Amino acid sequence: AAGVIQSPRHLIKEKRETATLKCYPIPRHDTVYWYQQGPGQDPQFLISFYEKMQSDKGSIPDRFSAQQFSDYHSELNMSSLELGDSALYFCASGNSGGPLNEQFFGPGTRLTVL
Amino acid sequence: AQSVTQPDIHITVSEGASLELRCNYSYGATPYLFWYVQSPGQGLQLLLKYFSGDTLVQGIKGFEAEFKRSQSSFNLRKPSVHWSDAAEYFCAVGSGGTSYGKLTFGQGTILTVHP
User: Fold this and answer.
1) Distance CA B58, CA A42 (A)
2) Within an 8 Å CB–CB cutoff, is residue B96 touching chain A?
3) Which of A67, A107, B55, B71 has its CA 20 to 30 A from that of B21?
């Protein structure tokens, strides 16, 4: 069965650089969620989209922005990177027509900021 | 605001022994509860979920969890642990409603299995 695809899987950036993380949801899923998991931490909700509109927002820094495109893939754009942004970034997708809150997670993008 | 507490940061069991991982939640309405498992450097795999109905839910890999509203708990159990169960386990509560699934996770419990 198709799963959530995230690219790249690993990314190394310098401080103050920008990064773009991509997420391709499971086919026919209309909802995308982004989470950030710092080292030894639990995943923290950043932002979510439903039908290309932002549906909820969590603890996402102003330096980050995200959007969902017409093909339902999503991109998380991160600017002025800081050392503390080093984390595993998960994307999850869901089907609003299915059971509430059942999210399927991608493998994550590991971002390292040097 | 919703929150999840996993009181045990690290649990060690012997292979073949039974397992119980504790989870307590705080949520104003009927909660949507989940258990996820994460192997090192890997993504999150859903073990089981509770939305309503029977309070004892069965999941994959022989896991089960029981929802107890009076105790605000959703503990994960397995009667006989296998070495491959060693991983980190996260309990989560979903907000439901119009947010379509913002999950709040507990701090996680690391499970070590001794042969």
Assistant:
1) 24
2) yes
3) A107
Task: For residue A55, report the phi and psi dihedrals to the nearest 5 degrees.
Answer: -105, -25
Cβ atoms of B113 and B14 closer than 8 Å: yes
Provide, rounded to the nearest whole percent, the portion of chain A with pLDDT above 70.
Answer: 96
User: Which residues, at least 6 apart from B51, have a Cβ–Cβ distance to it below 8 Å?
Assistant: A99, A100, A101, B32
CA distance A87 to B35: 22
B89 touches chain A (CB under 8 A): no
**Which of B78, B32, B65, B29 has its CA nearest to residue B51?**
B32
- Chain-chain contact of A43 with B90 (C-beta, under 8 angstroms): yes
